Amino acid sequence: MSENEQSTQVTYADSGVDTAEGARAVDAIKQMVASTNRPEVIGGIGGFGGLFSAAALKDMADPVLISGTDGVGTKLVLAQILDRHETVGQDLVAMCVNDILASGAEPLFFLDYVAIGHIEAAHMAQIVKGVADGCKLAGCALVGGEMAEHPGVMRPDDYDLAGFAVGVVDRPKMLDPANVRPGDVILGLSSTGIHSNGYSLVRRVLGVDGVVPGTAEAAEKRAELERPLESLGGETLADALLRPTRIYVKPVLAALRAGAPVRALAHITGGGITENLNRALAPDVDAVVDRRVSGDANAAGTTCEFGWHVPPVIDEVCHRAQLSPNEACKTFNMGVGLCVICAAEDEDAVRAAIEAVGEHPFRVGTCVNGSGQVRYADEAAN
């Protein structure tokens, strides 16, 4: 044996990968995963693939499978600084299932991928519980996933999440932006807050950009974020910023199945209203959003009174960042998590169907001749 060769055994555990703890983590989440099962699920987790029966699809005239994948983004950094991991799994599911809902699809099953510096079963159970909760809210089954331990690549307490959802819609019932026409009405469904987009700006504004979780600086920032704020009605920034993304699947599908004549949907995610509503427009149609600007703008031009409720945490971040209305609308959802487009003559019917399932839609704007862009009524007036 040369002097450069190992004289003692080096195990996988010695290199930083604890397979035994990984097995304990799987055991800890089995019941959570099982709680999301649908009748189509075959078997459970632990195999080399998730099994899901497609027998029900034969009852459709032309079943179309729709898939979506996404992550939670840098909202995870705040979760790590605050050591609160119970809700980010719901964010992960929401980002995927709300996207495939935009085609009118019912989410069928979901898979997650967790990359982490060091696996601890209790920590992993917190994260996966959020995923399971999200799947139950969406009515889809969590059929599998992966927990990947990355020692030497990630800090022990660092992790990232990715998700993948598959849904189905019968082609004759599929929502299509090509059906949107000038004169159509745009309704909004409320968001719970910032959801899962814009957190790189949030972290910069709050002074936590670059803060390493687990350090003294992180503890100081955590204490600051956990102080109640009058501007948030006594709520803490920690609670408001980690409130999970709303999942719109069940109420919207219920309205569609009740016959609501919806033409298109837009999930308002990264890029805000400006860069998502246009994805639900025909090429020759513009959306004119009425955000009802009023009052005298301050030096930064941030005064903008919207015609619907904007969660206080969004107002707080926009104020601290001194965002103009246009920058705000292409960064955050501004209180609109999902846009629903319908013909003007169908507005009452669509509102009634959505209200019947417990939602409170509000007018966001109208559609006009154009080129697939989002415009704002206050700009047109100036």
Classified in CATH, the superfamily of the largest domain is PurM-like C-terminal domain
CATH-derived architecture of the largest domain: Alpha-Beta Complex
CATH topology of the largest domain: Phosphoribosyl-aminoimidazole Synthetase, Chain A, domain 2
Strand order of the largest sheet: 8-10-7-11-9-12
Radius of gyration over all CA atoms, rounded: 23 Å
Strand content: 15-25%
Given this structure, which CATH class of the largest domain is correct? Alpha Beta
In total, the number of strands is 12
Helix fraction by DSSP (H/I, runs of at least 4): 25-40%
Alpha-beta classification? alpha+beta
Distance between the termini: 82 Å
Walkthrough of the structure:
The protein is an alpha+beta fold and 382 residues long. It has helices at 19-34, 75-82, 88-101, 121-138, 199-206, 216-225, 237-241, 249-257, 312-321, 325-329, 347-355, 377-381, and strands at 41-42, 51-52, 63-71, 106-116, 141-149, 159-170, 185-190, 262-267, 285-289, 336-342, 362-369, 374-376. The protein has two domains: 19-173, 60s Ribosomal Protein L30, Chain: A (2-Layer Sandwich); 177-196 and 245-381, PurM-like C-terminal domain (Phosphoribosyl-aminoimidazole Synthetase, Chain A, domain 2, Alpha-Beta Complex), CATH 3.90.650.10. A six-stranded mixed β-sheet has the order 8-10-7-11-9-12. Strands 3-6-4-5 form a four-stranded mixed β-sheet, with helices on one face. A two-stranded antiparallel sheet has the order 1-2. The protein starts with 18 loop residues before the first helix and ends with a helix. Mean pLDDT is 90; it is low at 293-303.
